[in-house]
Amino acid sequence: MAVGLEAPKTLLPVAGVRLSSTAAGIRYQGRDDLVLMAFEAGTRMAGVFTRNAFCAAPVLVAREHLAAGQPRYWLINSGNANAGTGAQGLSDARRSCALVAAQAGLAAEAVLPFSTGVIGEPLAVDAIERALPALYSGLSADGWLAAARAIMTTDTVPKGASREVALSSGTVTLTGIAKGAGMIRPDMATMLAFVATDARIEQAPLQGLLQAAVDGSFNRITVDGDTSTNDACMLAATGASGIGIQDPEDEARFAEALNALMRELAHAIVRDGEGATKFVTIEVGEAADTPEALAVAYTVAHSPLVKTALFASDPNWGRILAAVGRSGLADLDVNAVRIWLDDVQIVRDGGRAPEYREEDGQRVMAREEILVRIELGRGMARERVWTCDLSHDYVRINAEYRT
Amino acid sequence: MAVGLEAPKTLLPVAGVRLSSTAAGIRYQGRDDLVLMAFEAGTRMAGVFTRNAFCAAPVLVAREHLAAGQPRYWLINSGNANAGTGAQGLSDARRSCALVAAQAGLAAEAVLPFSTGVIGEPLAVDAIERALPALYSGLSADGWLAAARAIMTTDTVPKGASREVALSSGTVTLTGIAKGAGMIRPDMATMLAFVATDARIEQAPLQGLLQAAVDGSFNRITVDGDTSTNDACMLAATGASGIGIQDPEDEARFAEALNALMRELAHAIVRDGEGATKFVTIEVGEAADTPEALAVAYTVAHSPLVKTALFASDPNWGRILAAVGRSGLADLDVNAVRIWLDDVQIVRDGGRAPEYREEDGQRVMAREEILVRIELGRGMARERVWTCDLSHDYVRINAEYRT
Question: Which residue of A has its CA nearest to B120?
Answer without folding.
Answer: A318
